[in-house]
């Protein structure tokens, strides 16, 4: 077991890789009654083509299997449903699927130990039948339709379709009604056996516990699965260029929603630093303090601060800016000229420091609750990052790095615009 | 650093709302930290919550007054205009720049409807000085900034700045119109509006586009002065600082406020007496949204605790009867839940369904309600519901904003029950109590949004 301490925010991480390959992270949190455990597997909607590590055969699966599996993990062979079991313990349990991982978690005040055992039990004991797989299709079809009526998910998805030609990040996490109809229990077992091996998973826990208690609890309740060799995933080659510049769709909404996407190069080095700088730059450009936001606000083109995000995995990397506006194209034009102007004259140092401090505040604030902490550490470690690194790297970021990244990453020919307009 | 992005699918499960500003309980009995409430002046209270749990300090100011249809639009505009500049920080940019310098402190304002009250809420969150890279008096700066924004607006010639007002009216028009954008929330709001047509609780909290044209900087300032001199004012501080009380009581903006007999509503008006009134609206959508607005009627007895239990068993959790039967057994819905609104004594059942499965879904929902009447629920159901509610009560102390909302909720009510008593009351609820509630519930309105 390794102990990593962060002196700035006075928190510690205990981390260990077990014999079966499971990575365990524990972040103690004194003074709190809340506890959380989350277990994630590196299996998301992008993983639809891989080589089965046992049979060595290539497998292509329908879209939406990772999400479907997540729905189907709760049912047990004895007829119980783990979501029921956990709920009846008085803990809040839930699960989610993203492009690159799936996670199961609960938050508790009492009953942490039985809930934790139940979590490990259901995640490591799948039970799929023809009947229960069939039944889930109706439920997931309703989930897909709910998001079909949601302008926000639509506008994000369309932006990804513009940026990427081949990369499966352009697919909806849940798949489509057609694709999920092709899913059967054999496919689910095949994917489960491949991706739910402990060596592909991370367990993260936060709460007021002694580390020994937590690590013993895990070791005493984990089946000794055999460590599996690394899964080989096959992804289509994605061109560096964007696929299309623009996509527009009409829905029954009151005001246009838009996403400006900026496609970026996938890299494996210095990711923490890059992520910090890109976040600083996005905020510098368009957060509520920025000159551009003031201008757009005064003209009635934006009425609230846009959502600014940078996201990446092993096969994609992009920034996305989301907001509502009566004239998204104008916002887009103004953003492009602002970027050009800043690329030419460089960033203002005072503003840069203000934004950098703001990002620092955000990082510290994310350590407020065990529920957040557990998630963040698991999520970051999916990308081989220890979350403390963001705080450690923060100091090393300077104006020069930021100017350089502004030149390299905010390229006009890598930008796309997606709009959902009212009918 | 990353959070969950908008494209990921977090499962949408029913859960009990923690406190939602409507609890009438007092948790000062909890060991360690509690809330210390102090009346600064008549009608103005300071509530301090000392805690070392968080890396941040959270300050909240709540202004509470009765909701009136004709004034709702103005009140929302006031919340928007206060963030456009104060005496010390003249413009929106000066405010946001100050916040950014304070390591990204955040200032949020919101407008809420709780019972028959309209509430302007202002929050400022900043990190605790202990965790700063360099020493600064961030807490004092936070108080000064927030108080200036709320109590010291930038007034010229006896009115708010007309140019800013024009922009904010524009924004508000967009905000009001956007109520159709989220179909789930829209359907719930429409059901409430129909149940309470012509009554205070039927007022849309953000107001009405047609009222915007008559508002100017002068009459808006008159409304601000009226609110500020008559409303109930609650100031909350959660965090680790010493001398909180001194810093606040000595603040000159507090000194300027008058004493008042706070004008707010404890018991509002009941819903219109409808009997399963069916309301249908159409939109171009893929999925239908059904909302059942239900009254819990009993004049003689306080059913607050047993109604919470009834709601939890019926549709409040992921193992409730509705979730099991409508979703898990019949595969008719992805989202299905019910929620209990204590101050209005209402339960709302909501589901997203295939449009042509309306009859089928409604039939199962009604069957479940009927089974509740017959007592067709298990002892496990009762135990599970108790555990879910009790966990919620305990959860209140674990998040800064929830804790504040909770203490505020009890401010709105006269009944003060300690947290332990609250838990005991839930523990004591029997099968018979729940059946009693089941026999007091009446469907008032069925709202269906379809294509």
Structure description:
The complex is a heterodimer of chains A (423) and B (451). Chain A is globular, with a radius of gyration of 22 Å. In chain A, helix 9 packs across helix 12 and helix 9 crosses helix 15 (399-409). In chain A, 51% of the residues are buried. In chain A, a hairpin with a 4-residue loop joins strand 1 and strand 2 (11-17). Chain A has 2 domains: 2-233, Metalloenzyme, LuxS/M16 peptidase-like (Cytochrome Bc1 Complex, Chain A, domain 1, 2-Layer Sandwich), CATH 3.30.830.10; 246-422, Cytochrome Bc1 Complex, Chain A, domain 1 (2-Layer Sandwich). The longest helix of chain A is centred in the first third of the chain and has 19 residues, at 130-148. Chain A has 423 residues and is of the alpha+beta class. Chain A has a 7-stranded mixed sheet with strand order 1-2-3-9-4-8-7, sandwiched between helices. Helix content of chain A is 42%, strand content 21%. With 451 residues, chain B is of the alpha+beta class. Helix content of chain B is 39%, strand content 23%. Chain B is built from 15 helices and 16 strands. In chain B, helix 1 (69-82) crosses helix 4 (162-177) and helix 9 (304-316) packs across helix 12. Chain B has helices at 69-82, 92-101, 138-151, 162-177, 183-195, 217-230, 244-249, 252-256, 304-316, 321-329, 358-374, 379-395, 400-411, 419-428, 431-438; strands at 9-10, 25-26, 35-41, 44-50, 56-66, 106-114, 117-127, 155-156, 159-160, 232-239, 277-282, 288-296, 333-341, 346-353, 417-418, 441-450. Chain B has 2 domains: 43-256, Metalloenzyme, LuxS/M16 peptidase-like (Cytochrome Bc1 Complex, Chain A, domain 1), CATH 3.30.830.10; 277-450, Metalloenzyme, LuxS/M16 peptidase-like (Cytochrome Bc1 Complex, Chain A, domain 1). At the A-B interface, helix 1, helix 2, strand 7, helix 4 and helix 5 of A face strand 1, helix 2, strand 7, helix 4 and strand 13 of B.
């Amino acid at each position: 077991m390794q102990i990593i301490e962060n002196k700035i925010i006075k928190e510690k991480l205990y981390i260990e890789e077990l014999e079966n390959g499971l990575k365990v992270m524990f972040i103690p949190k004194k003074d709190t009654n809340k506890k959380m455990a989350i277990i994630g597997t590196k299996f998301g909607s992008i993983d639809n083509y891989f080589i089965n590590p046992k049979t060595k055969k290539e497998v292509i699966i329908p879209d939406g299997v990772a999400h479907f599996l997540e729905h189907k993990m709760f049912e047990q062979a004895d007829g119980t449903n783990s979501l029921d079991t956990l709920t009846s313990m008085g803990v809040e349990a839930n699960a989610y699927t993203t492009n690159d991982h799936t996670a199961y978690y609960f938050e508790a005040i009492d009953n942490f130990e039985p809930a934790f055992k139940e979590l490990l039990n259901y995640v490591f004991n799948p039970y799929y039948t023809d009947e229960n797989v069939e039944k889930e299709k109706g439920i997931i079809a309703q989930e897909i339709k709910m998001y079909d009526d949601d302008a926000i998910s639509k506008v994000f998805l369309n932006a990804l379709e513009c940026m990427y030609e081949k990369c499966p990040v352009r697919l909806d996490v849940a798949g489509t009604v057609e694709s999920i109809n092709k899913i059967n229990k054999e496919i689910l077992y095949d994917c489960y056996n491949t991706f739910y091996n402990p060596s592909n998973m991370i367990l993260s826990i936060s709460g007021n516990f002694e580390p020994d208690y937590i690590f013993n609890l895990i070791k005493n309740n984990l089946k000794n699965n055999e460590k599996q060799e690394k899964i080989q995933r096959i992804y289509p080659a994605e061109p560096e260029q964007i696929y299309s510049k623009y996509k527009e769709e009409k829905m029954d909404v009151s005001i246009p929603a838009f996403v400006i996407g900026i496609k970026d190069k996938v890299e494996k080095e210095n990711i923490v630093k890059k992520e910090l700088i890109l976040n600083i730059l996005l905020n510098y450009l368009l957060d509520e303090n920025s000159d551009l936001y003031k201008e757009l606000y005064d003209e009635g083109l934006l009425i609230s601060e846009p959502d600014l995000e940078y996201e990446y995995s092993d096969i994609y990397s992009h920034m996305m800016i989301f907001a509502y506006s009566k004239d998204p194209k104008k916002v887009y034009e103004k953003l492009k000229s602002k970027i050009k102007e800043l690329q030419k004259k460089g960033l203002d140092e005072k503003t840069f420091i203000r934004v950098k401090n703001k990002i620092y505040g955000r990082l510290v604030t994310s350590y407020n609750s065990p529920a957040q902490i557990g998630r963040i550490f698991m999520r970051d470690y999916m990308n081989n990052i220890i979350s403390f690194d963001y705080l450690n790297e923060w100091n090393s970021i300077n104006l020069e790095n930021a100017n350089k990244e502004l030149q390299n990453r905010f390229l006009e020919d890598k930008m796309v615009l997606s709009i959902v307009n009212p009918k | 650093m990353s959070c969950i992005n908008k494209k990921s699918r977090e499962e949408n499960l029913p859960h009990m709302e923690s406190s939602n500003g409507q609890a009438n309980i007092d948790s000062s009995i909890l060991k360690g930290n509690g809330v210390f409430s102090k009346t600064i002046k008549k009608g103005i209270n300071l509530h301090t919550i000392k805690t070392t749990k968080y890396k941040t300090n959270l300050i909240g100011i709540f202004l509470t007054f009765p909701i009136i249809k004709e004034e709702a639009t103005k009140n929302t505009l006031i919340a928007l205009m206060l963030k456009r500049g104060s005496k010390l920080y003249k413009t929106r940019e000066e405010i946001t720049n100050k916040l950014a310098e304070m390591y990204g402190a955040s200032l949020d304002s919101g407008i809420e409807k709780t019972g028959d009250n309209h509430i302007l809420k202002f929050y400022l969150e900043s990190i605790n000085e202990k965790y700063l890279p360099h020493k600064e008096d961030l807490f004092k700066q936070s108080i000064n900034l927030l108080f200036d924004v709320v109590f010291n607006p930038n007034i010229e010639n006896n009115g708010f700045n007309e140019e800013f007002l024009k922009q904010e009216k524009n924004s508000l028009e967009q905000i009001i119109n956007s109520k159709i954008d989220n179909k789930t929330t829209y359907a719930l709001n429409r059901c409430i509006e129909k149940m309470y047509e012509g009554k205070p609780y039927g007022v849309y909290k953000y107001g009405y586009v047609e009222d915007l044209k008559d508002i100017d900087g002068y009459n808006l300032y008159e409304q601000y002065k009226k609110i500020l001199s008559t409303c109930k004012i609650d100031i909350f501080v959660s965090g680790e600082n010493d001398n909180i009380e001194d810093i606040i009581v000595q603040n000159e903006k507090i000194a300027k406020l008058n004493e008042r007999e706070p004008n707010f509503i404890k018991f509002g008006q009941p819903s219109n007496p409808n009997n399963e009134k069916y309301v249908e609206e159409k939109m171009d959508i893929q999925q239908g949204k059904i909302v059942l607005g239900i009254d819990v009627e009993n004049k003689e007895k306080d059913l607050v605790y047993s109604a919470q239990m009834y709601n939890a068993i019926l549709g409040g959790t992921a193992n409730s009867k509705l979730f099991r039967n409508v979703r898990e057994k019949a595969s008719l819905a992805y989202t299905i839940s019910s929620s209990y609104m204590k101050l209005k004594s209402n339960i709302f059942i909501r589901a997203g369904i295939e449009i042509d499965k309306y009859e089928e879904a409604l039939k199962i929902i009604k069957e479940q309600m009927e089974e509740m009447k017959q007592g067709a629920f298990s002892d496990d159901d009762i135990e599970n519901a108790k555990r879910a509610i009790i966990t919620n009560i305990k959860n209140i102390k674990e998040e800064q904003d929830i804790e504040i909302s909770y203490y505020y909720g009890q401010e709105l009510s006269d009944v003060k029950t300690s947290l332990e008593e609250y838990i005991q009351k839930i523990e004591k609820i029997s099968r018979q109590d729940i059946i009693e509630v089941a026999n007091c519930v009446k469907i008032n309105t069925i709202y269906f949004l379809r294509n």
